[in-house]
Fold this protein.
Amino acid sequence: MIRARALATHATDTTTAAASNPLLAHLAARTQPIGGLRVLTDDQVTGFLAPLPPTALPGIGPAAARTLARLGLTTPGRIAATPLQRALGSGPGTCLHRHAQGIDPTPSPPPARGRRPGTAPPGAPPPVRVGHLGAGFRDG
């Protein structure tokens, strides 16, 4: 439905993913080909994150990736297995360690005003409960 609407309305294709939090949904969507769909279950998270480059995690650019590489931390799997608070400080170290484990403290957006959570607007199909969706729009 999302893909069909994006194609019809914007003449662009989408890549969609569903996961237990926004971080994982976003990462899963970025690893799929154009038009792809990925559902990332909780038991797949460790294996999914382990081989990704550190730059896939939010806040890790090329300079931070080089610093992590000097510490031998070249994948989220290695980052997740290493306490980073001493090397990076309490706040950044804890945040990066959690992201490497697939933990995202980002709160879900509140429901639209005037509607109860889980209800669809009039005329819309009923919502599908899959956790969080991440979508990437690409020119087709």
About this structure: The beta strands are 12-19, 37-39, 132-139.
